[in-house]
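Notes from the 1:1 (GR / supervisor)

We went over the backlog. Supervisor wanted to see one worked example end to end before approving the batch request, so GR pasted a single chain during the call. The sequence is below; no edits were made to it. Supervisor asked that the structure be written out right there so they could see what the output format looks like.
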Amino acid sequence: MKETDLPVSQDIDRLKLFIYLVPVFGFFPALLSLYRRKGSQQELAISRLAVLLALGWLVAYSLLGTGAQLSEGFSLRLLITSSLLTTGYFLTNLWLIIRLWRRKSVRLPGISNLSDRLP
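Structure output shown during the call:
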């Protein structure tokens, strides 16, 4: 093995971590990574975190959208809450990508603990 093969392999592994944290679209490769159960501990931890964040956003977004459709008085408030939730989801993923780029810890208080308990 050449000396140049190792950094290229590390760069590819790091690129996979970036892809997992892409909002909405990163959910599918992260889920596939969890299904295969292959990869480093960091890759599996970030995959679990990305899947948990995406599923939490999707459930909350669906519930808020359904509530806005069904209620007359609270529809605007629920739609505003839904947009704030979506903005928070995207900004959280962007913040995690920046932390990964700076090679810092990619853990969220409470949420990472919950994702670590998942199989």
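Supervisor's comment: Residues 5-116 form one domain.
Batch request approved.
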